[in-house]
Amino acid sequence: MTGKILTVLLSPLASALLLGLMALGLSWWRPVKSMQRLAWWLVSFALLWLWIWSTPLASEALRGWIEEQAGPRTLEAVPAAPVIVVLGGGVSGPRLPQRPYPDLNGSADRIWHAARLYHAGKAPKVLLSGGVVRTGDGSEAEAMQRFLQELGLPASAILLEDGSDNTASNAQLSASKLARERIDTVILVTSALHMPRARAAFEQAGLKVLPAPTDFEVVDMPLDLLQLLPNAGALSGSAQGMKELVGLISSM
Fold first, then answer.
1. Which of 23, 151, 187, 242 is the S-S candidate for 84 at Cβ 3.0 to 4.6 Å?
2. Residues 13-49: tens digit of each pLDDT
3. Beta pairing, strands 158-161 & 208-211
4. Per residue in 75-129, pLDDT tens?
5. Considering only CA atoms, which of 250, 240, 248, 235 is closest in space to residue 8?
6. What is the pTM for the complete model shown?
């Protein structure tokens, strides 16, 4: 819980709002010239900080740097291993009657990439890791299982870890399940932005990790005026990048 609160507070939007509230408090609580000057500087810094991380240039630079640490981008560069571990976050389970089938989101490349790896003969087993995100839904692992079977994976090749609710528990519960199978080396599949933090968590859980990142967000950074203009998408990307950076640092 503490880590999640820290991540939120360090996000560009939340930190800018916090600085703005501090400036407002100073100007109201100590209406003297020195406090007014400090409040003005806090507001100026908050606006500048928010502007910077709302630009595609800064957002893509941060996310691109993290993704460069993720690992190989091609199927051929991934070594073989006993099992492929796929982390949840790319699919939501059915929710009857409105949603009869699994719903894919922007991170669903994880599932496609796991199917590619399996069909390429990289591993004979696939472990799907992800618990229940929303009460009333099935687990992410079950939703991924259904989708992977539709992509041609046999039920006999699929293992489920459906008790985890974050990256740390993904790693711990997966390692515990694989220990019973006498497996200590895994091909880890998750989004490239998430991979450095996920890999650190799985290595701390005692597993040897062969990263197989997917869902690369930053593929081109054209230098033009639009890269300096703020937009909501860039701000959201910066917040996600900050979250992964904070998580990676705290896991060291």
1. 187
2. 888 888 888 888 877 766 666 677 888 889 999 999 9
3. unpaired
4. 999 999 999 999 998 887 777 778 788 788 888 999 999 999 999 999 999 999 9
5. 240
6. 0.89
Contacts 24+ apart (CB under 8 A), 67-70: 67/192, 67/193, 67/195, 67/213, 67/216, 67/217, 67/218, 69/195, 69/196, 70/192, 70/193, 70/195, 70/196, 70/211, 70/213, 70/216
Place of tokens 């985890």: 164
What CATH number matches the domain at 73-211, 3.40.50.620, 3.30.479.20, 1.20.120.1730, 3.40.50.300?
3.40.50.620
Q: Are 153 and 126 in contact (CB under 8 A)?
A: yes
Backbone angles phi, psi at 166, to 5 degrees: -160, 180
Tokens standing for 241?
A: 């990048």
End-to-end Cα separation, the chain, in angstroms:
18
In whole angstroms, what is the distance from residue 250 CA to residue 173 CA?
Answer: 20
